[in-house]
Amino acid sequence: MTEPLLQVRDLSVLFPARRGAPPVKAVEGLSFDIGPGQTLGLVGQSGSGKTTAGRAILQLQKASEGSVKLLGQELTTMRSGDLRRMRRHMQFVLQNPYSSLHPRMTIGQILSEPLQVHRTVPANRIRERVEELLELVNLDPAMTRRYPHEFSGGQRQRVVIARALAVNPDFVVCDEPVSALDVRTQAQIVTLLQSLQQKLGLSYLFIAHDLAIVREMAHRVAVMFRGRIVEMGSAAQVYDSPAHPYTQLLLDAVPVPDPVLQRERLRRAPPDLRFLDGDGGACVQGVDHVRAGTSEWHEVAPGHGVSCRYWPQGRSAAA
Amino acid sequence: MMDVLARMKGLLRRLLARRGAALGLGFLALVALAAAFATVLPFDPLSQSVAASLLPPSAENWFGTDELGRDILARVIYGARTSLLTAAGAVVIAALVGVPVGLAAGFYGDWRDSLLMRCIDVLLALPNILFAMALIAVLGRSQGAALIAVGIAGIPGFARIARAQVMALRQLDFVTAVRGFGGSPGYIMFKTILPNALSPLVVQAIVLASIAILLEAALAFLGVGVPPPTPSWGEMLRTGKSYLYEAPTYAVLPGIVLTLTILSLDTIGRALTAILDRDETDASGETIGGRR
Amino acid sequence: MTKLSRRQFGMAGLALASVSLAGGLPASAQQLKGGRLRVAVLSELANYDPQQLSTVNFHVIKNLYDSLIEYTPEGKPEPSLATEWNIAPDKTSVTLKLRSGVTFHSGTPFKADSVLATLQKGADPKRGKNVFSTMSIVKDWSAPDDATVTINFKAPVPERQMLDLLQFLIPIDPKGIDTVETVPAGTGPYTLVNRAVGQSLTLKANPKYWREKQPIVQDLVFTVFSEDASASAALESGAVDIVYNGSSRSAVRLKNAGFQVFAGPGPLVQVFRINSTRGPFRNKSFRQAFNHLMDRASILRVGYAGMGKVVALPWAPASPAYDESYNATYAYDLEKAKKLIAASGLSADEIKNWKLLVNGSDESSVAISQIVQGSLQKVGIPVELDMRQGAEYVTALLGGDFAATFGAVGNVQKFPSRVTTNSIYRTSGNPILKDPHPHPDYVAAIAKVDGASGGAAEVKAAYDNLNKVMVEEAFGIPTNSYDVGLIVASDKIGGITLDIDNLFIARTIGFK
Q: Which of B109, C58, C226, C500 lies at a 20 to 30 A Cα distance from A112?
């Protein structure tokens, strides 16, 4: 395998204690790689730490531990000036296209901002580049003088994507990029993201709670629960043979349009929910991996791993 | 910025829709126009005619004459220049210092916030008028001294509002987006946050302008304002009060103009606040400040 | 009038005197009834030391103390605590007979020892205060017995100068002389009851007072007002019976409203003081232009409601050196002023290179300074006003730290050389003009007046010479005389006595 574009190791984010409440570990021990032109899908319920993880990778949220390397450069310890320059290689697309565009700026101003900040194109070519970007996301270049509120959610999300692409990034974090849109628009945006990946060789960290869309987008999928990755593998591995009960639970929750499949699923035993009882520090086998210094990670197939954490009692991890 | 201009135009239109604010704006516009074109109007605030002193209002001298036989209307008009210039200067000073301080304090939110806001608290704790008098004692009596004194007194107001705005705005997605593509703190504060925090700052500027006019008048009334013969409303009140028996209109008419000016500014300020509050309510869930 | 100049006036050594008529009260006053007299004043007194006389305590001194002799309003000397004064033929000494049967408020009998103690204090550079400079002519003193005091002079002294000194000397109780600033120690018609600093001062009649049937009113209450207008309003509403030392303008208005107005014989003269050691003012011709730049009629009208007289010399009409003809010769005339300015040879930049210092605390000064500013503008001299408040102005004025300013002078109705008690007219140690005096002609003219002990013609010639030199040197440009210590009284009040220095005398006042 070639050198990964992004390498995340043991990334943790700790929110400090506040008003008597204990500190919260939002993200704990996150490790994964993303290769050039690849998409890693990050799934999990809301509150599982997906968004925090994305922000921590982009250094918008301070990580308490761990390392993030982009293009071989360590980001967590980078000086703020260097980091700002580094940001042209990594961009993000936020969930809400309504709030992530400056309400008082025209589309043209919004798209030229990153160009001006990074001075990637000379001032007299900015206009040209803005129009180019609009075309890239299938928008009419004539709309540069209009304001975000004049557009639909899908159009705005295209603008957000265009802005992310303005500086020719290598890596884009898409944080629930379609969840605020209607289904038809979702499909269009997903198609757009895919075509952009092919055209520009982008790598994505695709954060979503919608498993169907992740399956469509991602080469590999990581499942997050309570700040940890409990299962990670290729999209096919995770979706077709989920190893962790939480993954199964997630997949079961997705309505299946095929009535046969749906019926078959209903015949299966309901997933064991006891793992929700909490994190006692020990894994299903009663081993405290942190104290023992052993890995809780178990490779069930090449490239398909699962954590023995959050495993209901009485079920074997190796099952 | 074109956009800011357009927004101000929109605000103006909505202000004019409110009767109180429209009256206030009208009066202010009258005062400002008179002050701006004072030199081309056929009024001389300095020409003395002791033989015609302390005359009551007449066709020739609409506001009467003062103790040196000078036309009081002319002095009110030229006094408006003093008042408005002091107000404008003070607002500029207060905003130039207060806004960046407030932005930085709110943006960083760490020890820099504590340090800056403690300094602001110290300023806030100083009684305006005493501080102004102390400053004038050091700098001497002049328009500049009054202006700086009032300006410094206005810094805390701007700083606090700017800080509150940053705190409210800095977590919003579009601000995060700018951070995400590598905008520097300065860029984020002034280009991203400030344009969205402008409305409450405009209200604050209006409030400060009215305080500045009042404070300037108070200083002149206490005899430490702009030195004579430069006309100033406060100075006219100060001198006029000695002639309340002989020429009651001497102090009363400038007093009315001063009162109406302050009242106008306050009405406008209050109307703006109401408009902006409604915007915020309407726009909640979308963006602060609203569109439309 | 400026507050400062009032103080100066006092510091200059204003003689204390009163017009208690030797024969007792005028017939009409006999019917006056006693009671409680309420007086509005506009200043808070500094302390009770009669040797620190200044306008702030003008309202109390003559009610707590008596002088050795008094002057009538016309300037005639009269006995007070001294019943007789015998001037030696060589004019180098004076012998006083002291009144018997007088006691201080403490009960101590008034005897020669108290006069000696008072002279001792006055001659002490630290304790003598305003009396000290006046004591410079005194060589020594002695008391042959309890009722006699002899004062010896260093050289022959004009009689009038001697009398001025006696009128200025106020015997202090020797027992209380060290605490006199806080506890009054006099023989006066009233004793202190209490003082609320900044608010009021209450006195009551001295039952053992030596003047028969005086004082008339038993209780005397001074209320301190910070505003002239509020004092007037208090009088009109009947809250006070008398306003003392209010503005001329209020007096004019109240007079028209039916109140009684009394102006004392001791006016001040407003003087445009020029620092001839500075900038364009070193040029004599330029200074002389100011003789014609003063719109005196307007100044009198605006600053002092027309109460007073325009003057071109620092004399009140009662002064022996008063010369009416100067008012016409040096009248307001911008053309003459322009010619003198042109004759000075100064450039347009040079002549405007100064500021006019103004006492911002004093309304009249602000108004009349603006009049002069207007006149200067007309002859091409645009100058700024340098407004200073209170103590800041006093410091600049006394330190001579100004180019030009208005400041009133006192002692303008007395022996002409007494004008030198005012800082701008001082002949040596002048704080503004410094030493050596830049106007030797003036110094010589004053010396000539002091030395003119011969006939009337010699005296007249000395006065004429002084007047001529004053307008020629033009470092002080008088504009007008005006009244100080004006008394405005309700119509129920009678028996007002005027003091030569316009101090307030309550003992003859009663209710009709």
A: B109
